[in-house]
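In response to a reviewer's request, we include the raw inputs and outputs for one of the modeled complexes. The two entities were modeled together in a single run.
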Amino acid sequence: MTWDTIVTASPTFILGLPLLFAFLTTLVGRFSKRLGKLLFGVGLLLTTFFVGVMSYQVLTDGSWFYVFGAEQPSPENLLSFFRITFVADGFAVLATLTIAITALAAGIYSYSFMKGESGLNKFYTLFLLTLAGVNGMVLTGDLFNLFVWFEVTSVASCALVAFRNYKGKSVEAGLKYMVLSTVGGLFVLFSIGLLYGQYGVLNYALLREGITGTFIDKLALGILVVMFAMKSSSVPMQMWAPDAYGEAPGSVTPFIAITSMGSLFVLFRLLFGVFSVSISPAASGSILIILGVLSMIVGVTMALVQSDLKRLIAYLSVSQIGYMMMAVGVGLATLNTGEYESFGELAMQGGLFHMINDGVYKALLFLSAVAVVHATGIRSLNELGGVAHKMPYTTFFFLLGALSIAGIPPLSGFSSKLLIYKSVYLYSPILVIIALVVSIITLAIIGKAFFNAFLGPNQGLVKNHISKTMLLSMGILTAVLVLFTLFPNVVVTEIVSPAIEGLIGSFEGVLP
Amino acid sequence: MNWEMSRVVRTITDILIVPMIIFGIYLVLHGHLTPGGGFQGGAVIASSTALLIVSYGTLGKHKKDLSSIEAVGLTLFILIAFFGIGYTMFYNYLAGTGGIFGGTVPAGPNPGYINTGGTVTLMNLMVGIEVSAALSLILWMMSRESGIMEAKDKGSEGMEVKG
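The model returned the following structure tokens for the whole complex.
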């Protein structure tokens, strides 16, 4: 076994190592809790390492398919596409990078945050299972395999939300999430059945060629769009998100948010990779735009009235999801027309850059807000105040995240939002006006939250100590955010552009 | 209320459990030859646990054992998949090698040779271990939450229905 074999197999490591370490953690944790904890960290680091390996290989040498169970990893003939295939392309790199950064930060944060809870080995197992599920979802090239990982993610992340089962609210949020995810999963299975019944194939590449655009195909696509939009907490299916984000153990809140981002990645992959040939991209793009605008407006208006810090950020994250859906929707609506060249591609760049950006600063916001809640034991903005005196680092991290989510110029949130504004304006100016208004309200809301919680006279609310590992995890996110801020052009050309190529062209003409 | 049933039921349970488990193991081991497989066989084995819980009202204190057995099954499953990584993950490196489960299936109708299938057979076995332990654990937890096993575990006398 050479290094090349391992590099080619890196997508399976990204998926398989979290699974292996999840089960090992349960097994070993029975004998030694410390060893279980250690294995969790090792699993997380190894997964991140292989995400790096895959990214490097894809960005330098181009994308490849990985066929499971075959004698050699690259597809030889048509029959290879009847096996489960994984796609390592630019889009998978963007998605797994976003997931890996957040997972690493949330994992490190969990170490000291979860101290004192019981059943921690189960927590680590669930965390790694969720990681495996999301990675599987974005890497797979097979519709049924997608359903399997969808279910793995749902079950594991529902259990994570309800992990602190001594709190009634956590269990309620977990149950709500569970019911919606199960219904979603069953409908996904139903629409896969609709497609399989007609064409007898499940692979994206084969489906792309096979789908003819019948009424049943449109029905299947409609169900898939609704269900994955539901999982990505888009309005009008956002009702589970604030509960789940608000009641999950603080350290995994950004990780739960990244599972919904994973669903969004999958939605884009399906719309561009599978359905864009046979079903009019203009129509599906318009639906994405409508969902996106709705999410932006409703998310931000709901955030306006929240007094709970975590729920406020949860609603803001719903509204940020809207930006991505709108921008990528514009790209989809103009696909294969002359307009794609002039502004559609720019919109896609903005949307996808906003995704990885949002993954980072949202995690930073959540984690620093959770640090405040952890230190004071108070979640209500009406009672918080003057925390900055005792928690200077956390204040700095929260401020960076807040400025970034509001799109204030030097920060990376501004770069991606500017790309979106510039391109979407050419599609429809009214969308940009809405987006700008939403952005201004976001600034007002996050400004209010910052003033209420951090500024003002010291009221002596800080009781608990914020450990160094928690600061380290926020520091990692800040470092990534600063990198994005300093070199947005590098990110766009090196990571986002290959992602767009992969999104549009990965399954084009791959069949022998 | 302690849920221990009459001696008749308990004796029948004792007798029935043996063929049930054997049938489950048969389903698991013949997964690559006949309808069935790891999940179905595991579920059959776990149904014997249901019988035990209904008739005796207890499994003893085996929750952690079940959890570990489940984890062992899953870990070995993934490891078996990883061992093929020289070719690809999940590659059936045992099939046709002549070793354990490495027999070749002769062409034409045959009674079913169990020494074939390669890693498929092994993986069926691991899934069988995992599912039987996990479903037993689920049944144990559910009966505990629903109160069937409550009285006995707390050591109170309850209304014993002994035959």
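As requested, we also summarize the result in words. The first helix of chain A runs from residue 3 to 8. Chain A has 19 helices and two strands.
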